[in-house]
Amino acid sequence: MEPHLTAMAVLPVGAALWDGLAALTRWTLANSWWLALLTAAALIGWEHLQRRLSAEALSRRTYLQLEPTPAFEPDAEQIWRQGMQLVRAAGSGPWWTPRRARSVRVRLRADGKRPLVYRIEAPATAHPLLKQTPYGTRVEVKQTAPVADKHRAHVVRAVLILHGEPGSRLREVPLDPDPLQPLIDAVADLNAELGDVAEVCVDLSPAPRWHLAARRMQAMQRARDQARREAQREARWLTRESADSLPVTMGKLLDPSEWRGSPRGQMVMSPQPRRVDREAVLGKLAHTPGLVRVQILVRCTSDAAGRAEARLARIGAAMDVYAGPSRLSTLGWSAGPLRFGPDRRPWRRRFDEQWATAVMRPARGGWAHVDELAGLLKPPTITARLPLLETEMPTYALGEDLLPQGWHRGGDGRERLLATHEDDTLFEVQSGKAGWGKTMRAQVHAVASAHNGRGLAFVDPHGDSFADVARYLAHEDIIDRIALFDLTVREDEEMLSCWNLLDMTAGQPAHEVTASVVEAFAGALGWSDVTAPRALTILTKAVEVLVVVNSQAVLAQVPDQQATIFQVRALLTDPTFRHLAIAGLDAETRKWWQGTFPDIPRDALLTVLNPLERLGASPVIRAFLGCPVSGYDIRSAMDEGQVLWFCPPGTGPTDRLLISLIVHDFLRAGLSRRDLPEAKRRAFRFYLDELISLDGSSTVLAEITEQLRKFGCRLYGMTQLMHRLNPATRSALLQNASCLSTTAGSLEAIAQITDQWPGAVTPRDVTDLERFRHYASFTVAGKRVGPLPIRGPELSEVFGGLARPGQVAALRKAAHANAAALPLAERSAMAVAQEEAVRSFLTTRCAPTETDNTGEQYA
Predict the structure, then answer these.
(1) For residue 567, which of 4, 340, 563, 625 is within the disulfide window of CB 3.0 to 4.6 Å?
(2) CA-based nearest residue to 819, from 646, 673, 683
(3) Helix/strand/coil (H/E/C) assignment for every residue in 366-409
(4) How far apart are CA 495 and CA 482, in angstroms?
(5) 355-410 pLDDT, tens digit each
(6) Whether pTM exceeds 0.70
(7) Contacts of 322 by beta carbon, 8 Å cutoff, 6+ apart
(8) SS3 for 616-654, per residue?
(9) DSSP characters over 26-46
């Protein structure tokens, strides 16, 4: 076919196509309203479908609460894995789920009852994925219910957006201290009674590829445009400089061609646009893994005016910790006193929908990388200083069966007197230097326990504590229960009670009494089967005989003729007394006295007699331990809830021996409560100062903490140097301590306590504590609280309203009467005459009928 014929054939086709397009355009213009309506209807229908599908998908959610252990300390890798797990969970819904509904929510909530609750809300299909976290066993994942809040009068809202260049990053916040600390501080003083609630919701969604590609293209195009503009600007500057500079001007004057008006040569080259570095321009947008869309919603509510607004401002300030090349800023703008944003109509409805459903509608700049949000992808860690709320540890109030522990300053700057429950506080250990408030804190503790109707025994080696507490104990319900054992008396007319270690009037088993006395002496003197086997045997056999004698005296209804510990000397050194005493023994027991005892050298007896001589050398101790019928009965005090105050005469070796006897008797009495049903074992607290002087090689303190809990016995121990205690005792005290506290002291001494709080408090934190300041940890409702900095309480500030100085004399009189106290002179005379009283009982018990192998008669 000829070329001109082909062109003629194509022309009608092109004309027809052009006519068709023109006709379509005319029809479209003529029917534009109808087309617009159809397009709008289709868009509305599509949006309605998307909303319905989103609502359906977002209604199928799982709610998990993450509760970290006190030692929770994740690393960056664990947080990265958790973030990627959340991103995968966000996209795990049904296939028909719209992209706006493919989200996972991290909710940080504080309501004044708990410092900061960390929750994850995700599609229900993601539950198997999220129930195990990369944080391992240090985070417990619990299934929970959706948050259901009641209406509150004041509600404020905010949306935090990422402000900065598209590829710029938030500041890389270190994990120590905890990135959540500013937020924790911002909500530390919430008041649950005023309805205060603060919540931060971080919604994450996988990055859509097409949207990410468009953002990258926009960023690159902006960078290229910027490079061209900079190149053009440089070209203009170069042209201006080349035209106006001095060298150019001089050149024109010297160049003849300039004189003739010939064209001047321009040698200035226009600069080319700089090459755009893709990685530098795109920043975090360059790498898809870990990239997410994010929206951060904040809502604060309260029933009191102004509190919610102030809280929102503090949360906004807390988020400044992330400010870097990019930062989190509040969406909205201000016009004078007016604020326009999510808290105002018409934007409020959009916020409330996002808040209720977690639908993703991030504002501009809503792109972030997982590692940028690391601080928000984990619960509070060990490095976080969590505020102490009243729901976690109560405030002391008289009459509520609480024990005051110390003043603590909360997040709102107010001090409150922390307390623990009586039944939670089993064993408490205090350490620290002398004069720093250990005894005062124990006195406050004991006075509160007495007013709670509990029984206790306070052993005060310094002797002045009863005078300090008397005015606060002078109440009718305590006067009837209190007993004073004051061994600091000096005048003959002063009142003194007594305690016969071998008293059998209470009907306790003879072997228990024997074992308690022997173990007390052995522990105080450092005797063992290796170091002093003969002394242990002699003392055991001697006490065994005297206990039998006392049982017979009680049976014969002459308890005032019982032997005391001082009759051990007569038993060992006086043949007549010994022969009378062993007559009541069974034949098997008498064999030792008849066959073995005569072969023991007399100097071997001195090991047993020397400590007894030291005890007897003090007139007061001789009078206290040398009378037959005890006014001191720790088992009765336990069962009846009595308040005992024991004041030893000093802290020397003899006094330590006396206190050791008391402590061992406490162990014996506690173990003897096995004859009571558990429900009838009234709690009894034992306060003991200067543990070092009592410990030695004995394990009695360890046994008390390990064995007496089930029998209702408690121990409150104080010591200056924890590391000087017997290792077994120290381990038992630290293992079982419900409350552990320390004041200032040496690094070596403090480290024994702070090692129990790894990462929370260092020895150097404690060494500079002021007087009456402590660090302490407590057990409340089975959970450990602290360590916390506290100020030790004082009697006057806690119980000032209970002071009755006018009733102190009556209290002291009742305390002596309840302890069966008599004047010191009368007690001393009774103790001196007691050996003859025992000898009289033994003589009248039976007549002499036999002789021993020495030819002497015995009964």
Answers:
(1) 563
(2) 646
(3) CEEEHHHHHHHCCCCCCCCCCCCCCCCCCECCCCCCEEEEEEEE
(4) 15
(5) 888 887 776 657 888 888 888 888 998 888 888 887 788 889 888 889 999 898 87
(6) yes
(7) 170, 171, 173, 179, 328, 372, 375
(8) HHCHHHHHHHCCCCCCCCHHHHHHHCCEEEEECCCCCHH
(9) HHHHHTHHHHHHHHHHHHHHH
